[in-house]
């Protein structure tokens, strides 16, 4: 989806179109994000826009990072918070280890945020808990 937004840079106003997600990355609902503000990051060449989820149960702030696609259009690069993928873990994993699922979810979130140095050890820790708790259950 695209929105028309205005921002000031170098004392001049600019009217551009930006892509925004169709669903809130926090609550997952399909929404039309109202625009609340924008800034141009000169060092990175990114246009950042701020939106608030219109879902009253959520109301989360979402920052969208855009890169120029030319002709006044800015493509969506990423959002903060990021949209986390749907994680489907087997039922037996939570029966074996209560800690596994929570540690695994944190590792997935670290990966989605681009924190590869943290995600890898997180996955390892999650599987260590799963294996250790499985071994304990077999005693």
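Q: What amino acid sequence fits the structure above?
A:
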């Amino acid at each position: 989806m695209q929105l028309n937004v205005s921002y000031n840079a170098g004392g001049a106003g600019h009217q551009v179109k930006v892509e925004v997600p169709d669903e809130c990355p926090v609550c997952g609902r399909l929404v039309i994000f109202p625009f609340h503000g924008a800034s141009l990051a000169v060092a990175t060449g990114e246009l950042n826009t701020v939106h608030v989820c219109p879902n009253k149960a959520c109301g989360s702030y979402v920052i969208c990072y855009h890169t120029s696609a030319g002709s006044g259009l800015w493509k969506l690069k990423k959002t903060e918070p990021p949209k986390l993928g749907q994680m489907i873990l087997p039922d037996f994993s939570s029966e074996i280890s209560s800690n596994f699922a929570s540690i695994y979810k944190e590792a997935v979130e670290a990966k989605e945020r681009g924190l590869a140095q943290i995600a890898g050890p997180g996955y390892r820790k999650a599987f260590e808990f799963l294996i250790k708790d499985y071994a304990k259950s077999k005693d």
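Q: And what stands out in the fold?
A: The first helix runs from residue 91 to 96.
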